[in-house]
Design goal:
- The chain contains 15 helices and 14 strands.
- By secondary structure, it is an alpha+beta fold.
- The strands form 2 sheets. Strands 4-7-8-10-11-12-13-14 form an 8-stranded antiparallel β-barrel.
- The mean pLDDT is 84.
């Protein structure tokens, strides 16, 4: 991302705050033009080179309509939709054969869903006015302006859906352009609605910056982000509307909200279920929805553009080297598994009689905690002795896992897990597994029954075991699961209580170690 674009976004936000303090609303539409242009150029960084011309076409439409809107003849009710409509027709015919490519997805520049959404945007005000008058007669006592705001929110949802369905983020950008262009010919505050659409357009692009981010509305961090966004927008709107706030109060309110939402983004470095890009995107949604309801002047527009700059800039510092290490380990494990499947190197234990020790540095236990894998990690070394008998049922395993070798690939979290409230490493520095019996399941697979000891508590745990040969080296592989609460740990709906694990342990004859 070009640093000049980020600087422009931040500068626009600061200018917006300054203009809000000065109550200089004559420049509001020009400010909207600058925001649309800058965010569109920001978005173009995610598009293929062949797609950028359409983005600049939308910028040209917005700038042209802003300029023509100063001619009083075009502000008359009968003519005010003329140029936006003509712009839509020209845009449709200019790019009707084009294909837009963004985030490895392709779609037509122009299709019927995008055209319908753009038409609704051009005539949104007129449609809403008619509906407001009808509903106003049905629901007396409610001001027509309030009904209009409510219907506008529905229009935002409908047009955003049509735009996303038609052409992903570009579709929303196009609809935002025509929404904004039509608003220049009126003296209401509904131009800010286009910025809400513009904010929604950024969501898939922001998600792409941090990799494959899944935003689940039912997850706690996303709901947390939504509430942060709603609170931040509402708080700033109230502070900037008050004549008693003063410059210091307004600036302080922005600093508080920026700090809170940035902290929400960076919490991913500490504990991903508490924050991250998905929570940050939730906050953006909260701000955009609030803007469509209570947004006026520069206040929430300034908040939005600076948040987009924050969401673009900070993820580069959120690279988790330990997580990259974990992904490399997982890739290696997958390659090993594929090799085993392809080469069929599973062997029978009856041919592996004798005493063995683990090769610690070539052995690993990987685990996932929670039904949806809320937390994952590994023991990077495994120590122990294994004795295979001719009578397999009499074979034995004694395995130790040292907490010094434990990682969830987040050093801050790992440190907290070693404290008395969780693993209590000072008192219980290791975990152990001692088998009591073994039975054959099929030709290559065995069940091992034994006691797993953690936090001074022992519980019977069943694991599977297979012997495989990889590059003339002996390994045992298997998997199992346990309920951590049975060992005295506190239950957690956020982290999950069931720990699923699999292991790969390299063996050497005891006299070869």
């Amino acid at each position: 991302m070009n640093p000049l674009i980020l600087i422009s976004l931040i500068t626009l936000g600061l200018v917006g705050i300054f203009l809000q303090l000065k109550k200089e609303f004559r420049l509001l539409n020009f400010f909207y033009v600058l925001i649309f242009t800058t965010i569109s150029i920001w978005a173009s960084c995610f598009y293929s080179d062949s797609s950028i011309s359409a983005i600049y076409g939308l910028i040209s439409i917005v700038v042209l309509n802003y300029g023509v809107s100063h001619l009083s003849i075009f502000r008359k009710p009968i003519l005010r939709n003329l140029l936006p409509l003509v712009s839509l027709i020209i845009f449709t015919f200019s790019f009707k054969e084009g294909v837009i490519e963004v985030l490895n997805n392709s779609s037509l520049f122009v299709n019927k869903f995008l055209v319908i959404g753009a038409l609704l945007s051009v005539f949104a005000f007129e449609i809403i006015q008619i509906k407001s008058k009808v509903l106003g007669k049905l629901f007396t006592g409610i001001e027509e302006s309030e009904i209009s705001k409510s219907i506008f929110i529905i229009f935002i949802g409908l047009t955003a859906f049509l735009g996303l369905f038609a052409a992903s983020s570009f579709g929303v950008l196009a609809i935002s352009a025509f929404f904004l262009s039509a608003s220049f010919y009126r003296d209401d505050n509904f131009g800010s609605v286009s910025l809400s659409l513009l904010g929604l357009m950024t969501l898939p692009l922001l998600a792409n910056i941090s990799g494959d981010v899944e935003v689940n509305l039912l997850s706690g961090e996303v709901l947390e982000g939504l509430l942060f966004g709603f609170f931040g927008a509402y708080f700033i709107a109230k502070v900037t509307d008050s004549d008693k706030s003063g410059a210091v109060g307004v600036i302080l309110s922005y600093l508080i909200i920026f700090s809170l939402i940035t902290m929400l983004l960076l919490l991913d470095l500490v504990y991903s279920s508490m924050g991250g890009m998905d929570a940050f995107i939730g906050a953006i949604v909260g701000v955009t929805v609030s803007n469509s309801i209570i947004g006026k002047g520069y206040s929430l527009s300034a908040l939005l553009v600076i948040l987009i700059a924050i969401g673009t800039y900070f993820p580069q510092f959120m690279v988790n080297d330990q997580l990259i290490e974990f992904e490399a380990v997982m890739q290696n494990e997958n390659q090993v598994s594929e090799e085993l499947v392809q080469n069929d190197k599973k062997l029978e234990l009856r041919d592996l009689i004798g005493s063995f020790e683990t090769v610690q540095d070539s052995s690993i236990v990987l685990f996932v905690m929670g039904e949806k894998g809320e937390t994952d990690g590994a023991f990077k070394k495994v120590s122990g002795v294994i004795d295979f008998k001719e009578d397999i049922s009499k074979s034995s395993l004694k395995i130790k896992l040292n907490l010094d070798d434990f990682t969830t690939f987040n050093s801050f979290r790992d440190g907290s897990l070693m404290e008395e409230s969780y693993f209590n490493q000072d008192k219980y520095p290791e975990l152990s597994y001692t088998s009591s019996s073994m039975e054959k399941v099929d030709k290559f697979t065995y069940k091992v029954f034994g006691e797993f000891k953690m936090l001074g508590v022992s519980r019977l745990i069943e694991v599977t075991l297979q012997w495989v040969e990889i590059n003339d080296t002996d390994f045992i592989l298997g998997e199992g699961s346990l309920d951590r609460t049975l060992f005295g740990m506190s239950p957690s709906a956020t982290e999950g209580n069931t720990v699923s694990f699999n292991y790969r342990v390299q063996l050497k004859k005891s006299n070869d170690i």
